Every structure is written in structure tokens, then in C-alpha cells.
Amino acid sequence: MVIKKLRSVLGQVAESTGSNMINRGGKKRFKRCVLHIGTEKTGTSTIQRFLTVNRKELVRDGVIYPSATGNNGGTQWGFAACAQKKPWEMDVGVALGIHSAEDQESYKDTLRKKLLREFVAAPKANVLVISSEHLHSRLSSKETIARLKAFLEPWVERFEIVLYLRRQDRVAVSLYSTKIKSGNPTPILFPGAAKGPVPYYFDYEKIYDNWCAVFGEEALKVRLFSPREWEQGDLVHDFCDVCRLSPEGKRMPVVENESLNQMGADFLLEVNRKMPHMVEGKRNKERDAVTRLISELCHGKNYPASREEAMKFYHRYLECNARIKEKAFPGRSEPLFDEDFSDYPESVEQLEPRYEDAVELALRIWKMKI
After folding, report:
1. How far is CA 318 from CA 34, 126, 173, 204, in A?
2. For residues 163-183, b (16+ Cβ closer than 10 Å) or e, as one string?
3. 221: helix, coil or strand?
4. How far apart are CA 322 and CA 20, in angstroms?
5. Rounded Cα–Cα distance for residues 126 and 122 (Å)
6. Strands, DSSP E only, in 248-323?
7. CA 271 to CA 362: how far, in whole Å?
8. CA–CA separation, 265 vs 176, rounded Å?
9. Is the pLDDT of residue 18 over 60?
10. The Cα angle at residue 129 between residues 127 and 135, in degrees rounded to 5
């Protein structure tokens, strides 16, 4: 009981001290906040692993990558949940236990207190780094982006928004594996109708415009997801360079191929039909465990589309790509993305999943568990 009371008092002191640290001599707590918003499928997991394993080293450099939203995977999707309009209607809210507007306010208040405690623990740090690809995909309006800014602004003098862009068809192919691993039994590879407005998820111009409208064009730092464009040909070094972080003395994460090969995709699609990804409003832990095993055993390339299909999908975005090029890369003469589609097959055979492959995977899973 005494220990419990002591913790409560210390927590109150930290919150009070943290509140006073929002402004120091008329200045806000952080000189700048780096908001790495994705986009999804542009190596965000690699960047987040780098930030996560080097938290202590970054603090010594005056940089906080907060753990207030959890360490699982590194992505700080709690910030997206604070700003979303109705997070309880989406997977993020469900995963975080947000089931109503009241829950969302309670979550924001709890997160604010956790952040303050971290800020108190590193009084000399003057740079805040937040990384979540969900900020790209979940905050799709100026209103929700403005909510995020309002949550962070009491602590921050200046914002820098880091955005990586990747050719749309390659994003879609990578996302296809993620949809399968997330439990979707009928994932769509290339979403959106052939005509009409392009989906926001792939509309880089619209994404750019929305974030510029809230934070100002000078805050946006747009990079291309291509080794040819990166500092030292390395994504982590490029991220450090654009964010003015020091990679020296830091542990570098192993770059993992997170896509599924054809065998793994076929196996998990059938698992998704048999095992729901949610049980009583919570993630199905058994299905998630199977997914982790299959992802480890079956990583690799899978191109479930023909060259013609990929080119047709990509060509839908040529106009908005041209406009974002003028806005974010003025003076650039070459295209934003290479237009080499030779890695796609000329045609795709729709082969039925093989019983032999399923047995092989089942045996490999069994061996991993014993």
C-alpha cells in the first residue's frame, strides 16, 4: 500500500513538473518535432527498428523517440488514434481498447501523461521524433491532421514532416501481402475503379496538399523510396540525414523482406477463411501466431499481377505524380519513379494451391514448435 501511494505521488510530481516543462523561459519544450508519416510500404518498419533499439543512444544526442504508445514493432500508431475521427470503428481503436469518444479522450489524456514522464526523464533533449505509417493511411483529411498538430503543438516550436514516396503499383503489391497477414480472406491487389478519382491512399499529391495545409509547405521533406536516391544508398542513413540525426555509434537493423511468397500467401488465405482475425472484439492470438510462423518461413517475392495489369494501374497516377513532382521536387528533370516493369511476369497463371505445399508447411511449423 505504501509503495502504491509513493508511486502515485511520484507520478503526480512528474506530471506537474512535465507541465511546467512545456514552456521553458517562454520557449516550448522541443525546438523541433520530426513527424515521419510513411507512406506505408516504404521501409517504415526498418526505420522504426533503428529508432527503437537506439532509444538510449538517441537521448544522449538530445533526441526522444517516445515509447509511450508501446514498443511492439516500433510504430507509434497511438498518435493516429488520438487524431482519428472515430477510431473505435477501425482496427487501431479496437486494438487500443478505444470503443467510444469518451475512451478516445481518456486514451489521449493517458498518453499525454506518459509522454510528460518521458520528457521529464530526459530534460536536455530538444528534438522529438515520431514515426508511424498510420499517419499516412488513417489521417486522410485536413481536420484529422490538424487534431494531431493540436495534440503536439503545446510542446513543439517547429515541425518537420518526413514523407517517403514509392511507385504506386509496388506499394500495392507489398500491401497485398500485408492484407493477407492481417487476416483478409479476399484481398484486392489493385484497388479502385478504372475511372474516377484515384484512392487517397495512392494519391501523393492529395496527401502532400493536406499536410502542407496544416503544417505549411516549408515543413514537408519529401523523399523517394529508391536506393539510388538515398544517402549512401541506405534507407536508415537517408532518414538520419534528412532528419539531422547522427547514425554514428548506433546499431543498424537488419533489413527484412516482409512480403510473402506464393506458397505462404496461399496458405494464409486459407487460414483466413478458417480462423477469424477477431474474437470477441479482440485480436485472435492463435491466428496471429500462425501468421508470424508463416511470415518467417515464407518471406520472398510474389507478383500476383501481370506486367500489363501493373502498368495499367500505375498509369492512373501519372498526372498526380507529375503535379507532386512540380510541387515537392521543383527543377527535377527525370521522372519521380523508374518505369521498368520487367520484374512482373508477362502473364499470371492462376494455379490452385497445392496439397503438397500445405503439408510441407505444416511439417515445418511443427518442427519449429517442438
Report:
1. 29, 40, 18, 11
2. bbbbbbbbbbbbbbbebbbeb
3. strand
4. 47
5. 9
6. 278-279, 282-283
7. 12
8. 9
9. no
10. 145
Q: Which residues contact 18 (CB under 8 A, 6 or more apart)?
A: 113, 115, 116, 117, 119, 120
pLDDT digits (tens, 9 = 90+) for 305-351: 899 999 999 999 999 999 999 999 999 999 999 999 999 999 887 66
Is 111:45 a contact under the CB 8 Å cutoff?
A: no
| 127 CA to centre of own chain | 20
Q: What is the rounded CA–CA span in Å between residue 280 and residue 278?
A: 7
> Which single residue is written with the C-alpha cell 496461399?
266
Report the SS3 class of residue 318.
Answer: helix
Q: Using CA atoms, how far apart are residues 344 and 35, in angstroms rounded to an integer?
A: 34
Residue 52 grid coordinates? 527503437
Percentage of the chain surpassing pLDDT 90? Answer: 61
The answer, yes or no, to whether residue 10 has pLDDT greater than 60, is no
Q: What is the pLDDT of residue 4?
A: 44
- Distance of alpha carbon 121 from alpha carbon 115, whole angstroms: 10
Closest Cα partner for 36 from 170, 162, 178? 162
Convert the pLDDT of each residue in 160-175 to its tens digit.
999 999 999 999 999 9
DSSP output for 91-153 = HHHHHTT--SHHHHHHHHHHHHHHHHHHHHH-TT--EEEEE-THHHHH--SHHHHHHHHHHHG
Ramachandran class of 330: left when φ > 0, alpha when ψ lies in -120 to 50, beta otherwise:
beta
Predicted confidence (pLDDT) per residue in 24-53, tens digit: 556 899 999 999 999 999 999 999 999 999
